[in-house]
Design goal:
The structure is a single chain. This protein has helices at 16-29, 46-52, 79-84, 95-100, 105-117, 130-134, 138-150, 179-196, 199-204, 215-222, 239-247; strands at residues 5-9, 36-40, 59-62, 89-92, 121-126, 161-165, 206-209, 229-232. It has 11 helices and 8 strands. The chain is 42% helix and 15% strand. It is of the alpha/beta class and 249 residues long. Bound molecules: glyceraldehyde-3-phosphate. Glyceraldehyde-3-phosphate binds at residues 9, 94, 166, 171-172, 210-213, 231-235. Pfam families: TIM. Homodimer. Involved in the gluconeogenesis. Catalyzes stereospecifically the conversion of dihydroxyacetone phosphate (DHAP) to D-glyceraldehyde-3-phosphate (G3P).
């Protein structure tokens, strides 16, 4: 079901004390909102976050997971491990995982399959590089990422998928896609899904925008008809900024 969502990807930020402090502040200041609010702290602080947010509407997500259940995968975390501590949502395919840690479409397809097998909710990230946009290949690149990562799934799997369009050139750079650029791509994404599946799935999927969303630009980006919320990086690390972004939706 299509929802409004504001999700904070904390990336490799916030130690245990800082995590607890930010969660306490967020819980205290969280406004009444029709949007789902999600935070994704680091793996080591996930259990703390789940416990801390036990009676809160704020949901907890992991930033990644492995595609196997158990085994000799040093440094990795499985879906079962996440579920076991109460984390049922996972971010997959973030551009930093793709570019810095070699996660390609084939690996992501395996991760998506595993998360679905475990009945997890997935926030699937994708988006073009600056060179793709400059060469007018951005639609083709996005279509390829969707096709390779998700279009082998059965129609019913889409109810567990949230999309996050994140143009790489806008991540952490301060350079945001204009609301029109975000809308244009989100509309294209829905049309592409409608072509591969049907218009019902395309209309119902939640599509977040990510890339330098701040209190100052959130309302305008979120006002676009095909933008259902945001995946927020830097601004999610400051309570007041994140709250302002939640208020903007
Ligand atoms: O996952 C979040 C995105 O990478 C956006 O990060 P940013 O808001 O710092 O640009």
């Amino acid at each position: 079901m299509r929802k409004k969502i504001v999700a904070g990807n904390w990336k490799m930020n916030k130690n245990l004390d800082e995590t607890e402090a930010l969660l306490a502040e967020l819980s205290a200041k969280l406004p009444d909102t029709h949007a789902d609010v999600i935070v994704a702290p680091t793996f080591v602080n996930l259990a703390t976050a789940v416990n801390h947010l036990n009676s809160s509407v704020i949901q907890v997500a992991a930033q990644n997971m492995h595609f196997e259940d158990t085994g000799a995968y040093t440094g990795e975390i499985s879906a079962d491990m996440l579920l076991n501590i109460g984390v049922g949502t996972v971010i997959l395919g973030h551009s930093e995982r793709r570019s810095l840690f070699g996660e390609d479409d084939a690996m992501l397809a395996r991760k998506v399959k595993k998360a679905l097998e475990k009945n997890m909710q997935i926030i699937f990230c994708f988006g073009e590089e600056l060179s793709d946009r400059k060469s007018s290949n951005h639609f083709k690149v996005v279509e390829g990422q969707l096709k390779n990562g998700l279009f082998n799934l059965p129609a019913e799997a889409w109810s567990s998928i949230i999309l996050a369009y994140e143009p790489v050139w806008a991540i952490g750079t301060g350079e945001t896609a204009s609301p029109e650029q975000a809308q244009e791509m989100h509309e294209f994404i829905r049309k592409t899904i409608a072509g591969a599946y049907d218009s019902n799935i395309a209309d119902e999927v939640t599509i977040l925008y990510g890339g330098s969303v701040k209190p100052a630009n959130a309302a305008e980006i979120f006002s676009k008809p095909d933008v259902d919320g945001g995946l927020i990086g830097g601004a999610a690390l400051k309570c007041d900024d994140f709250i302002a972004i939640i208020n903007a939706i």
